[in-house]
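Researcher: Next sequence.
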Amino acid sequence: MTDDDTIYNPPKYERQTTIAYTAADKFANISTNIKRDMKRLNKLSKKYPDDYYCSFVNVYGGSYQCMTKYLNFSVPRIQTEAQKKRRAEILKSNRNKNKEPF
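Model: Next structure:
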């Protein structure tokens, strides 16, 4: 992938990620010009080359493929204020554990 400084940074209304596949396809085609998505897909394609593939990347965006079984559409998590507070405490505790020297 190119350096972050050389990647074209379009205005928000021009940023997009498109995913295309059919029910018969084993792989989905992903085209994006969103830096965050590109970084994530590049990492995944390096770590899991059998499941994610980078077709090309240039300063304007990238094209990737991933197995359709990894596509996931989920419902939003609805939490009460007490649940949110408890979750925040757990995350803070875990963050503090990771900062301790070994």
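Model: The longest helix spans residues 81-99. Strands lie at 17-20, 27-32, 52-58, 61-67.
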